[in-house]
Amino acid sequence: MDVAAGLARVRERIAAACARAGRDPASVRLVAVSKTKPVEMLRAAQAAGQAIFGENYAQDLREKADALAGVEWHFIGALQTNKAKLVVAGPR
After folding, report:
1. Residue 18 — very low, low, confident or very high, per pLDDT cuts 50/70/90?
2. Cα separation, 59 vs 38, whole angstroms
3. Per-residue DSSP letters for 30-74?
4. Distance between terminal CA atoms of the chain?
5. CA 54 → CA 16, 21, 22, 30, 60, distances in Å?
6. In 3D, which of 87, 89, 47 has the Cα closest to residue 70?
7. To pair with 21 at 20 to 30 A between CA atoms, which of 12, 51, 81, 91?
8. Share of the chain above pLDDT 70, in %
9. Domains of the chain by range and CATH?
10. Residue 6 to residue 90: CA distance in whole angstroms
11. Within 10 A of 32 (CB to CB), how many other CB atoms are there?
12. Phi, psi of 45, deg, nearest 5
């Protein structure tokens, strides 16, 4: 799958939906979910202009945040008490 092409299609759909709703597309923030995706795919998305990612596994969030600079991360999963320190600490 071509990550850049996929992102372009999603952005086109967002722009079309915004046009129908009379909303500025710049007011929409696309959060790309990185669950189960390898870092190489996330790097391709970042190279295509994606800067916001969501992860729902605390340990994967830590690893991916360490591997990718300049990315805004959101934790989107259920958080177990014993994993909270991984999410709260932020990137190393």
Report:
1. very high
2. 13
3. --EE-TT--HHHHHHHHHTT--EEEES-HHHHHHHHHH-SS-EEE
4. 31
5. 23, 25, 27, 10, 11
6. 47
7. 51
8. 95
9. 3-88 (3.20.20.10)
10. 28
11. 21
12. -65, -40
Give the model confidence (pLDDT) of 36-77 as tens digits: 999 999 999 999 999 999 999 888 999 999 999 999 999 997
Angle at 27 between CA 24 and CA 28, to 5 degrees: 110
Name which of 58, 65, 55 is nearest 91 in CA terms: 65
Q: Token pair 């600079």 is at which residue?
A: 69
Residue with tokens 């945040």: 65
Instruction: Decide if 53 contacts 32 (C-beta within 8 A).
Output: yes
